[in-house]
Specification:
- It is an enzyme of class 2 (transferase).
- Keywords: ATP-binding, Carbohydrate metabolism, Kinase, Nucleotide-binding, Transferase, Xylose metabolism.
- One of its GO terms (molecular function) is ATP binding.
- Belongs to the FGGY kinase family.
- By secondary structure, the protein is an alpha+beta fold.
- The chain folds into 2 domains: about 250 residues, Nucleotidyltransferase, domain 5; about 160 residues, ATPase, nucleotide binding domain (Nucleotidyltransferase, domain 5, 2-Layer Sandwich), CATH 3.30.420.40.
- Helix content is about 40%, strand content about 20%.
- A hairpin with a 4-residue loop joins strand 10 and strand 11.
- Helix 10 crosses helix 16.
- The longest helix has 26 residues.
């Protein structure tokens, strides 16, 4: 008899629930959307109850859609948007709308924290990471300063996916990968940084116990079972933060594999087998979903977002043509880019439309095309956008390898951009490595959550066993004929920010 695992992926726009069988095949997937609130510029909030309604509704629909007996679902796990703050009172009620990962209101508190501690290196001693405004820690400091009455009411500070866990099981708990992104977590010890919390006079008991991603944290209550369609007593497994667990769903469970996520933003990530002191303020060093592995990543702010901006701004004709023919506009754009040549005939695109986070953390950086002449055509410009993102990802990959030089043998890509064969080939040629897509990765963090949930339920003995069910969907091998031109273009690209930094700073105040 087949066995199944279920997962909830609590994203910014909606909750996806999926069901996967014991051969790693997705049998059902449903998304329920919910609203985002932005009461002021830079403020982003959601109502945790909206998450819960979206979660139980999508899971119930996924079970109904699959046609399987819910008794054969052996566990439920989670992927969740990271860094958010859900403030809970002593009775388990939400005090206010949750602060999200992209809420920037606590920039002042983060800067003051660094100053009070004596700089990044002192903070790094506790957490091995910088304190970014998106992190939960800065939000707690903001709440203490700006909404002291709510801070006093708060008895638990939990992460978004762990609110779903509480609703399902009545238990407070988090996992090491998600907790790594709070800014108050000792990644080396895989526990909260009690020393840092004491130094900041923040109560230790605000924070829930920490488990590994594949550990069972409780069981589904009778009340939650009625809402979700699960059976009471179904084990609920730790899960993980979305930026980490989506790479587990790509098979990044050992060193030597680089993962590239081509979403609106871009992520470059790799697993590391040992703890390394992270002196690079642009990289994030987190716990992996595998107990003896760490997760290092850098984030590019405008990856697929660059291509989308280019399409929407300069390609109205192609969009109209695609609509008339029932095609994807990107397919038409890719055809034009394919007609260009590697290096876009000397044209470079810098993808800094929103500033940048890695390999430079600088809000003043700007996007631009450099090297344009009368001989360039639209296909060259299109291709340069794809290549510029590839060069930026290579920079982040090299920064990761500076922490620990290891030989890379492959790249696995996911996200909407990975559907483009041309873009995959460009990445393969820039990195001079084979590039693969794998089954399940299109489901994002939800698929990785199913894998850790299956390990927790005993369906697979470990994540190696779970990932062995994955199938290679596409393969792109590097073309050695393109190596020289891409190496030269990459070196020119890498010189651009140091050369233009002063000009970008001057433009930022106009």
């Amino acid at each position: 008899m087949k066995q199944y695992v279920a997962a909830m992926d609590i994203g910014t726009s909606g909750c996806k629930s999926i069901i996967v069988d014991d051969e790693g095949q997705v049998v059902s997937s449903v998304i329920e959307e919910y609203p985002l609130y932005s009461p002021k510029p830079g403020w982003n909030e959601q109502d945790p109850m909206d998450w819960w309604v979206g979660a139980y509704t999508s899971l119930h629909k996924a079970i109904d859609k699959s046609g399987i007996d819910a008794g054969n679902i052996k566990s439920l796990s989670f992927s969740g948007q990271m860094h958010g703050l859900v403030a809970m009172d002593k009775d388990g009620n939400v005090i206010r709308r949750a602060f999200l990962w992209n809420d920037q209101r606590c920039a002042k508190q983060c800067q003051e924290l660094l100053q009070d501690l004596g700089g990044f290196e002192e903070l790094r001693r506790f957490t091995n990471n910088n304190m970014l405004p998106g992190y939960q820690g800065g939000k707690i400091l903001w709440l203490r300063e700006v909404e002291p009455e709510n801070y006093q009411k708060m008895k638990k500070a939990i992460l978004p996916k762990d609110y779903l866990r509480y609703q399902l099981t009545g238990e407070y708990c988090t996992d090491a990968s998600d907790a790594s992104g709070t800014g108050f977590f000792d990644v080396e010890k895989r526990e909260h940084s009690w020393e840092l919390l004491d130094r900041l006079n923040i109560p230790r008991d605000l924070f829930p116990p920490v488990v590994e991603s594949s550990e069972v944290t409780g069981v589904v209550t009778k009340e939650a079972a009625e809402l979700t369609g699960l059976k009471p007593g179904t084990p609920v497994v730790g899960g993980g933060g979305d930026s980490v667990i989506q790479t587990t769903g790509m098979g990044l469970i050992r060193e030597g594999i680089l993962g590239l996520t081509l979403g609106t933003g871009g992520i470059v990530a790799m697993g590391m087998s040992q703890y390394i002191e992270n002196h690079d303020q642009t990289l994030q060093f987190f716990c992996n979903n595998q107990k003896d592995l760490y997760h290092v990543m850098g984030v590019m702010l405008a990856c697929g977002g660059s291509y989308q901006w280019y399409r929407n701004t300069f390609c109205k004709g192609e969009m109209a043509e695609a609509k008339a023919q029932g095609l994807d506009p990107y397919d038409i754009l890719n055809q034009g880019a394919e007609a260009s040549s590697p290096g876009s005939r000397g044209l470079i695109y810098l993808p800094y439309l929103s500033g940048e986070r890695a390999p430079y953390t600088d809000p003043n950086l700007r996007g631009c095309f450099i090297g344009m002449t009368q001989s360039h055509c639209k296909g060259d410009i299109t291709r340069s956008v794809m290549e510029g993102i590839g060069y930026g990802m290579k920079q982040i990959g090299e920064a990761i390898l500076q922490l620990k030089p290891v030989p890379l043998d492959r790249i696995i890509v996911s996200g909407g951009g990975s559907r483009s064969n041309l873009w995959r080939q460009i990445l393969s040629d820039i990195f001079q490595l084979p590039v693969y897509t794998v089954s399940g990765a299109k489901e994002g963090g939800a698929y990785g959550a199913c894998l850790v949930g299956g390990v927790g339920a005993g369906i697979w003995k470990d994540l190696d066993d779970a990932c062995s069910t994955m199938k290679v969907m596409t393969e792109n091998l590097p073309n050695p004929d393109n190596k020289a031109v891409y190496e030269e273009m990459y070196h020119i690209y890498s010189d651009m920010v140091p050369t233009l930094k002063n000009q970008f700073d001057r433009l930022s105040v106009i």
